[in-house]
Amino acid sequence: MQSGNTLEQLPVGEDADRAVLKNAQKALGSIILGKDDQIALALACLLARGHLLIEDLPGLGKTMLAQALARILGLSFRRIQFTSDLLPADIVGVSIFRQNKGEFEFQPGPIFSQLILADEVNRATPKAQSALLEAMEEYQVSVDGNTRRLPEPFFVVATQNPADQIGTFPLPESQLDRFLMRLELGYPNEENERELITGADRRTMLEDVKAVASPEDLQSLQKAAANVHMSEPLVDYIQALVRQTRESPDIEIGLSPRGSLALVAAAKARAFVENHSGVYPDDIQAVFAAIAGHRLKPASNTTHRSAAELCQHVLDSVAIP
C-alpha cells in the first residue's frame, strides 16, 4: 500500500463486518504480493480463532505476513525469535524478588500480547516449544503456581523452516495439532517478483499501513464467521472426509475429533471471507490441506508421500454432495 493512500470509508450496520474484512484483504494484498489464496486462508484461520503455522524456506515473506496481520488488524504484537538456547521463562515471564517491597513481582514475558510471532519455532528445543502449549490451548499460562489469562483475542503465528535444514528440531504431533492451519507461501511469480525488486521496500510500506480494524472488530468478525450456515449434507461430507483419513490404507494416523472441529470452523470462516451465503463444498476443499496436512501421518507403503498429495488423495476418494 503506498504511503498516503486512504482506505474505503467503512459503512455502519450489517455490512460493516464485510467492509472491515474487505479492507483487511486489500491492505494485506498490497504488502504480500500474489498470495491472495494464502491471505484468505490466514484471515480465515484468525476468524476461526485458530493459530497459524507458516512453513517455507527463509526469505519468502513468512515474518512479513505475520507482522502485516497484526498491524492491519490493530493487534498488539510481539516477536519471539526461537533459538536453541531459548528458555520457557523467556516466553512466559518470570517472578523477580523486589528487595524494596520484600516480595516477588511477576514480569510478564512476550507471550502477553494479542498476536505472537514465534519465529523459526522449530529452531528451539522441545522444552522451549512446550511453553507455548498451554497458551495456545487454554489461552493462559501458569507460572510459579499462579494462572494468568492472556489478552483477547490471542493468536500464535509461528514460522518454521523445512525440517531438513540445519539446526531444526521437529515439532511434536501434540504441538502441531494446536495449529489450526499450516500454510506454505512459495516463490512469487515473475511479475510479482519484479514488482518486489523494483518497487518500494515492503518493510517501509508496512510501517505506513494503518490499522483497518480493532480487536473488537475482529471479535465481531469471529462471531459472524462462527454463525455461517452449514447444511446437513456438508456435515456428512466432512464426516466422510474424516472417516476416509482414518480408514485409508495410505494413512497411518487420521484426523482426530479436534481435526474435525477445526475443519468445520475453518470452512465456515473461509465461506465468510469469500462472502458466501453459507458453506459450499469449495470452502471445505479449499481449507482441507491446510487443516489436515500437518495432522495426517502417511503409511510407510503409500505412494502419496507429501502432505499435499495425501490430502488431494483423500479429497479425490470422497464424493462431493
Written account of the structure:
This protein has helices spanning 16-31, 36-47, 62-72, 88-92, 126-129, 131-138, 173-176, 190-198, 202-208, 215-226, 232-247, 257-273, 281-292, 307-317, and strands at 51-55, 77-81, 93-98, 103-108, 115-119, 140-143, 146-149, 155-160, 179-183, 251-253, 297-298. The protein has 321 residues and is α/β, with parallel strands linked by helices. The protein has 2 domains: 16-222, P-loop containing nucleotide triphosphate hydrolases (Rossmann fold, 3-Layer(aba) Sandwich); 228-317, Helicase, Ruva Protein, domain 3. The strands form 4 sheets. It has a 5-stranded parallel sheet. It has a two-stranded antiparallel ribbon with strand order 3-4. A hairpin with a 4-residue loop joins strand 3 and strand 4 (103-108). Mean pLDDT is 88; it is low at 1-14.
